[in-house]
Structures
1.
Amino acid sequence: MSVDWETWLTAGLRILLIAVIALTVRWVVRRAITRLISRLNREAPEHRRLARSGLLLNSERRRQRSEAIGSVLRSAASVLILGTAALMVLSELGVQLGPLMASAGVAGVAIGFGARSLVQDVISGMFMLLEDQYGVGDTIDVGEATGTVLEIGLRVTTLRGDAGEVWYVRNGEIKRVGNLSQGWSTALVDVEVPADTDVERLRKMIAEVGAELSRAEPWHELMWEPVRYLGVESVSAESMLVKVAAKTQAGRAPEVERELRWRLKRALDEAGLVHHEPLPVPLPLGGQSEPRAAGEPAAAE
């Protein structure tokens, strides 16, 4: 049995050429994707903070988002290029691709059915990154867990809760996301004063306290609008409740609320507009309206 060395040599050279071309194309594509991601990261400082449009982007958030997208693109390009090269090599070796593709299709369906949750997690993570639903440093509410985003992966998002606990949330299980760090927030403060307080005087006092706060460091950077007097929320026989609001940077409302509440309390104390809850009057034992003097006989039943 003679061996057709020329045929084998020709096939070997073709396979070698296919491998070289595939690896070269893969290197060029991955290099181009990496340079594109690096360019996007360099341009980030120019658009890092667009406060008035409500988009607060930091470098870490943009870097992680772009790196994740770049990783997906590089992996997809590698699978496409190397997969095509592998099919071409098999064709050069004389393998019938029809039955092989049919078998691969059946195996792919079985694997896809078993790993459908993994595929769902990855696809959800890709869309979350592409749509910029949240980023590193954002405070988000995903239903079962609430906290600050530590890391965004294609399969899992990592959060740190208020008590320091770390949550690992699968992206496919996130049905809705409440982002507390996008756009702007509203600081709301309730002020309770005596019912006979002069409302106009109270409004002027709130405006003065708000103006003082908006000029102070570092609150002038956190507050986007002056403090607003919203009006009277409720009135009772002893007290009146008014509501005050201020527009702040996203996620910074609690800090502004605490500072504004403290300054309002100080101003109300100085003006003497402090509401005191009436003390409960203890009832005498036995239902008597007045205590009896010592030695006084009890009233006849």
2.
Amino acid sequence: MIKKVGFDNNKYLQEQSEAILERINMFEGKLYLEFGGKLLYDYHAARVLPGYDPNIKVKLLKKLKNKIDIILCIYAGDIEKGRIRGDFGITYDVDALKLIDDLRSYGLDVMAVVITRFNNQPQVINFKKKLEARNIKVYLHSATKGYPTDVDTIVSEEGYGKNSYIKTKNRIIVVTGPGPGSGKLATCLSQFYHDYKKGIESGYAKFETFPIWNIPLKHPVNLAYEAATADLGDINLIDPFHLKAYKKTAVNYNRDIEVFPVLRSILSKITEGHLPYKSPTDMGVSRAGFAIVDDKIVKEASKQEVIRRYFRHKYENILGISDEKPVEKIMLLMEELDIKPEDRKAVIPARHAVSGVRRKTKTVPQISCGAAIELKNGKIITGKNSSLMSASASLVLNTIKVLARIPDKIHLLSPNVLKNIANLKKDILGLKLDNLDLQETLITLSISAATNPTAETAMEKLKELSGCEVHLTHIPRPGDEMGLRRLKVNLTTDSIFPTNNLYML
């Protein structure tokens, strides 16, 4: 059974492309379109808006291909600190390279990369050299002098004027980046400033999916956005400027509302008072809210996303990646939505699987791990760790056997082969954890499939796990987490370490 759909991609593509083309017609020059959120692989949007294509934005750009240029921004500090993108587990500089490759696969080229707030960091200089060696044009922009209070300095040769002008060909300039704080707005305004100095009357607009401006403030979709940005402290608000100007409510978030007076002053200074926008909502072009076709489905999906974010932030907190504030924020959101962690259907079965391990093996709690998956038809399957494999590996094998209708008593992998691999890991390689993690298990399965038709049939079912819900009772080992990530499941975990060892492999 296929998951129910609450969002219409075709309607969205049509409305969104029309909205962007309408906006460019407001200006004689270019339109600098700041793309907020993720340009590709927007799995948050896909989870809260069932039916949403996570790559719909790049398909939108492909539709407008002959009218756009793309500029990619990355903050120098993110390169220096090795900031990591949570859904892929890769650093932002690597994500920028991946984004360029991915755009090329859609026939879209990045015209230039802008490294923002550059301060002569050695890591950043090396990154610049790497890009230039691949014939990618790189611009270095320093922090804007006077920002955010001294508008006279900002809008001068000492402010935006110090940044190199990026030459573009088309009228619509898409400015994107690997994450928040990449310097997209500053790059847009810097270009905007240079255009006006040249007598080109350009414009600026923002394309950001969340929060969705034309649905209620407390709609679960918008609360899920607050949960997703709990570490940034974003809060959704009624746009007071929009309410004052039009006597209509519209939803925006605190950072956009707070910066609007500054932005308005900067734009007014550059354009000598010719302002087309009366509110931050006016600046946006998103039409996502108009493509919601089943509000009930979207509400339920968004509640589930809030729960996922709760588990994610608890996990990051125990690893020392973040403090307790995001967890506390999400707990308040859950209370507001009248939901609890156990409302995620895979949670309780996973925990019950742990008790089964304890009764059977009498192992200590730290190494008794359970796992559960909710399939797209609602069926729950569980797995547990053993001396041969991890709970994640057990779960995946159990699941593909069910999907392939293979009797439980039939082994997909020979116990003797598993024991030999365990001996290799422990006795020859000297590893403490000798049971197989998920990645090792998948490789073993692929080898077995070469001579075992049953294993081959089961392996073909792996792709059906994409988009399913998985919960683990313990923090996964790297090989388990990466394996689940590559299977594209939606993973949550209880914040309990699977062993007393400080180093897990």
